[in-house]
Amino acid sequence: MIQFSDIGLQLGTRILFDDLNFTLFAREKVGLIGQNGAGKSTLFSMIQGEVQPDRGEIQIPKNLRFATVKQETPALETSALEYVLDGDTIYRQQQRELAAAEAKNDPKALGKVHEWMLATEHYMKPAKAGELLHGLGFSFAEQQKSVAEFSGGWRMRLNLAQALIADSDVLLLDEPTNHLDLEAVLWLESWLKTYPGILIVISHDRDFLDEVVKVVLWLDQQNIKRFSANYSGFEKMRATELEQAQAAFSKQQRERAHLQGFIDRFRAQATKAKQVQSRIKALERMGESLAAYEQSAFQFQFLPLDTRNLRDVLLAILDANLGYGDKVVLQDVKFQLSPGQRIGLLGPNGAGKSTLIKALSGEAPLLQGERATSPHLKLGYFSQHQLDMLREEESPFWHIRQLSPRAMEPDIRRFLGQFDFCGDKVFDPITHFSGGEKARLALALIVWQKPNVLLLDEPTNHLDIDMRQALIFALQEYEGALVVISHDRHLLRATTDELYLVHDGELNLFNGSIDDYPTWWKGVQAAADAKTKVVAPKVKVDRKAERREAAEARAAKANQAKRSKALEQELQTIAARLVEVEAALATEAIYQPEQKTELETLLKERTDLQWQQHQMEETWLTLLAELEENQEECT
Predict the structure, then answer these.
(1) Of 15, 444, 479, 494, whose CB neighbour count within 10 A is largest?
(2) Distance CA 549, CA 568 (A)
(3) Exposed / middle / buried, residue 419 (Cβ in 10 Å: 0-12, 13-18, 19+)
């Protein structure tokens, strides 16, 4: 259990928390939400003991193990797999102690380390790390690559895997889906549901929160409120509170107006002085209630488009092969975009979604085929790499002025204010802007240019819930054509009418909704993981061949039964020998210096026997299953 009691914290002149109280219980899965700057990351630091409150008490059990995602990843030559294993401190400690015991040639220490390793399933840890990496989108070959070979986004996935493999009691995740595609998000949701400790996650992905968390902690106005619900449940509860608060505010305002009216009418009358003073005191005691309102600094819209001269097709790719160099990623692509079309692109990582977007934008040349555009096309293209194209030393105002040198300063400031660039911030260099602020500026630059076609590649990365909602509202009112890639299912559900699937080198219409996609993806994974069974085509055979095949099947079945019985006997022999070895290792005499060679022999024999036992059990169980299957087929 983690408990915060009457916590107060002031950063400079700003009060961040005031009388903050909440409790987290074992195995709870919690979503921590609030506007940017509300103190979510600071609260994470307080939970980990990195920031101390000015007042109040934080109660955290001793020896509680925390895991969190590193924000920096050096360009190491270590392989991805080994880097992830570095996150398992117990595994690395066991390796160090094993090496030390072997260097000292200490049989007793070796025995203890091996006992510890067996108890913690030490030998399974590389397989566990590989499973985590596979779920996060790394192929087997990529797991062997050095960390230095991966881009920043993929290194963040490695850091996430490091946090997941760690033996922890509390897992703290800050925007874990930012650098993931939809398939990795679906896998992470499934993994987190089985996490046995306390999970606290900061996320602006509504569907992700709905799937994972059961408790919402809402940071607002220097305090925190607990809701026993997922994010959708929190929204409903919050809406009810707002309605009730608005009703209470309206009632209070009516009462205040009534009291003030009495005071104003009878203030000058001596006979009413006592009643007037009584009502003045009542008005003072009543205090002020804040009107209910949703706090959001963002509310923007795309300007109306001139659609008179637009053709039926604004942008098309015809009979095209897409890819890089000699590598073809998509073949025979036929895609066209008409005014008003709203398309979402789905498909696993590396299938070619971004390749298609780049080809549509003209940023990447076609390997084959034709890209056709309307003469009236005005393209707006957003992708993460465009954030790097912003001029770090320049301001938001400068960036807009570069697009429209004659634009008036009040108009630019008014426009940027919609994206929460207010006051002097419109003239601040963006070098110290956060990722979310840079993403807002990149979107603002697109909106300013009044595009009639929008190509958006993961536009919600780094955006908080308020800005995501503002973007959704703006896209819903947008009159132009839209193609979007996003791991945010809520955005896809709310802003697109058609879904296309990029998979196996092809582009096809997806026959379903965004809510059907997880089921489709699980089917693809199951098919890939299952062993391929080649079924021979049925051919006409003669009776003699049929009898021969039947005889061979009976012989095979008999052989399976014979092999199964033999394995069972071998397993009994191994189990009996293991009992003898364990008994020998349990004696004190075996750890005497003169028994060093015998101890090493026994330890090695036990390891070998356990490995043989594991392998034989798997083979034996497989044979039993095949025998049962054959028996069912015969009956």
Answers:
(1) 444
(2) 28
(3) buried
Q: How confident is the model at residue 482 (pLDDT cuts 50, 70, 90)?
A: very high
**Other beta carbons less than 10 A from residue 405's beta carbon:** 7
> How many Å apart are CA 602 and CA 574, to the nearest integer?
14
- The mean of the pLDDT values for the chain is 85
Give the gyration radius of the chain's Cα atoms.
33
* Concatenated DSSP letters of 543-560: HHHHHHHHHHHHHHHHHH
Binned at pLDDT 50, 70 and 90, residue 271 comes out as: low
Which residue range(s) make up the domain with 33? 2-235
Question: CA of 308: how far to CAs of 304, 372, 480, in Å?
Answer: 12, 20, 12
Distance CA 292, CA 290 (A): 6
pLDDT per position as a tens digit, 348-405: 988 999 999 999 999 999 999 999 999 889 999 999 877 888 999 999 999 999 999 9
523 residue type, one letter: G
Q: What is the DSSP string of 168-214?
A: -SEEEEESTTTT--HHHHHHHHHHHHT--SEEEEE---HHHHHHH-S
Over residues 411-440, mean pLDDT: 90
Question: What single string gives the DSSP state of each residue in 380-418?
Answer: EEE-GGGGGGS-TTS-HHHHHHHH-TT--HHHHHHHHHT
- Confirm if 485 and 185 have CB atoms less than 8 A apart: no
User: In CATH, what number is assigned to the domain containing residue 467?
Assistant: 3.40.50.300
Mean of the pLDDT values across residues 7-35?
Answer: 92
Q: How far is CA 459 from the centre of its chain?
A: 15
* CA–CA dist 339, 307 (Å, integer): 8
Q: Measuring CA to CA, how many Å separate 148 from each of 145, 162, 465? A: 8, 16, 33
Query: How many domains is the chain built from?
Result: 4
The phi and psi torsions of 378 (rounded to 5 degrees) equal: -125, 105
Domain termination residue (choose one: 216, 235, 254): 235
Cβ pair 486, 460 in contact under 8 A: yes
- Name the one residue in this structure whose structure tokens are 């630091």: 45
Same domain, 120 and 201: yes
CA distance 563 to 294: 71
Tokens of 23: 């409790």
Percent of the chain residues past pLDDT 90, beyond the cut: 51
* Nearest in space to 212 (alpha carbons), one of 226, 229, 192, 232: 192
249 plus 214 within the same structural domain:
no
Query: Are 357 and 324 within one domain?
Result: yes
Mean pLDDT of 403-428: 92
Confidence bin at 298 (pLDDT 50/70/90)? low
Quickly tell me which residue has 């309605």 as its tokens. Answer: 243
